[in-house]
Amino acid sequence: MDYIKIRFEHNLEALGSRLEKTVADMFQAVNPVFICSEHTWKPQMDIYETRKEIIIRAELSGVEKQNIEIEINRRAVKISGNRNETPSGESGTYRLAEIQYGYFERTFYLPAAIDTDNASASQANGLLELRLAKLPFDVTHKIVIDGA
Q: What is the C-alpha to C-alpha distance for residues 81 and 35, in angstroms, rounded to an integer?
């Protein structure tokens, strides 16, 4: 059985430069040829939440489980990996080539704090699904006052 790696990070913000991404997106908007080689594609994702959890679905067809890495902390999720190019096998000329290959990375800041000990990931039919349990908001703690 293959497992999808989930790492718990304390500082996801330090994992990438927002300025670098903004500049790359600006040039890509002007001309798609200016795609940063490190981030060649962005898989489509859905994020929705229920009262008790946040669910993230990522369209990752053709990406093997061992090529996916997930990092989470209480307020953010980073999903990264690599889709390897499939050789055509025959000599020929492409008439259309829209499938994107290579490294991808997506980072999301969550609308609620999550319980990092209660997270799960599964993959079926080309979709990765993360289920992240929310931390309860209404938990109250009594504090004892020390001293005389």
A: 17
Taking the CA atoms of 56, 61, 125 and 68 in sequence, report the sign of the dihedral they define: negative
Residue 81 belongs to domain spanning = 5-86+99-134
Q: Which of 121, 37, 49, 40 is nearest to 78 (CA)?
A: 121
Residue 52 DSSP one-character state: S
Express each pLDDT in 36-95 by its tens digit. Answer: 444 478 999 999 999 999 999 999 999 999 999 999 999 999 999 999 988 777 788 888
Give strand pairing partners of 122: 129
pTM: 0.67
Q: Which residues lie across from 108 on neighbouring strands? A: 77
Tally of structural domains, the chain: 1
Q: Which residues of 35-58 are buried (b: 16+ CB within 10 A; e: fewer)?
A: beeebeeebebeeeeeeebbebeb
Tokens of 26: 């600006």
Kindly state whether residue 80 falls inside one of the protein's structural domains.
yes
